[in-house]
Amino acid sequence: MDDAATAKKERDPAWWGRRAWSLLSAVRARAPLVQCITNLVSMDIAANALLAAGASPAMVHSLREVPDFTPRCDAVYVNVGTLSEDWLPSMRAAASAGRPWVLDPVAAAASGFRMEACLELLALRPAVVRGNASEILALANRSVAASSNFKGADSSHESVDALEAAKALALSTGSVVAVSGAVDFITNGEQVVGVSNGVPMMQKITATGCAVTALIAAFVAIEPSDALVAAACALAIFGLAGEIGMESSKGPASLRMHLIDTLYCLDEETVTSRVKLSLRP
Fold first, then answer.
1. How many other C-beta atoms can be found within 10 angstroms of the C-beta atom of residue 174?
2. Which of 42, 119, 132, 231 has the highest Cβ tally under 10 A?
3. Which residues pair with 77 in a beta bridge?
């Protein structure tokens, strides 16, 4: 299929619905093993989200286990939320083990140590970097050459404000960059996909961002050759689970429960008709 035909296909909302369902179905069928070196706050919800989607989580962070364990995994997820000097060598080793991997640069600009750690990891070429607008702006500001054309470092940090920074970061690193917000933007530096699924209440649940990044890793395990599509579909699926879960929820605690239940119960008709993905101009 030539580039024009591919672009036309990807502008069809029905194509995205079918693609999201096929990837979720493949996760359920293959149960990819995802090694998670993630923060202490997110371990529970990340593991439960992966299990509910059909993947197999492994919270393995010991440096001594990485040489034996990581090469057997289908994907690796690295999250710096509760970063420590003890865990950083494990993160570097797992990211260098030859498996597709995903980076969540939590609060990248909170300290010099954290920023330098994120930049070291970014140099190891994650398949996907997923962060909020402030995190992506901070990384782009430090890692993209001063001559680049990204804007918005002084913005109010909505996801759209970080879009040009995300494009520049993707082009400079070779990673797909996903910016979470009211609308999620996913880019490889040239193409941009927008995802409009989700509800504001999800921001009131600790580590939902961490959980969706873990889900992205599971989808990348299934589709390592197209991390843009994998990341976009994972974000849409997770956001859709939040939308449906919100229909039965009274607040953040019940939404957390219903979100995980919904992720487990999603069916083809629901996914194909309700995911909101689009290829942006």
1. 11
2. 231
3. 36, 102
Question: What one-character DSSP code corresponds to residue 61?
Answer: -
In contact, 61 and 90? CB cutoff 8 Å: yes
Give dist(CA 212, CA 166) in Å, integer.
Answer: 18
Residues 6+ apart with CB under 8 A from 158: 133, 181, 182
HSE value, Cβ hemisphere, 13 Å, CA-based, for 134? 6
Q: What are the structure tokens assigned to 1, written together?
A: 């299929």
Residues in the chain: 281
Residue 105 and residue 81 in contact, taking contact as beta carbons nearer than 8 Å: no
What distance in Å separates the CA atoms of residue 275 and residue 87, rounded to the nearest whole number?
A: 36
List, in sequence order, the alpha helices (H) in the chain.
3-10, 13-30, 43-53, 66-69, 88-95, 112-122, 133-143, 163-173, 208-222, 227-246, 252-265, 268-274
Tokens of 268: 């083809």
User: Which of 42, 143, 40 is CA-nearest to residue 86?
Assistant: 40
pLDDT 10s digits, 15-49: 999 999 999 999 999 999 999 999 999 999 999 99
- Return all residues near 111 (Cβ < 8 A) that are at least 6 apart: none
Q: What pTM does this model have?
A: 0.92
- Residue 228 CA to residue 16 CA, distance in Å, equals 12
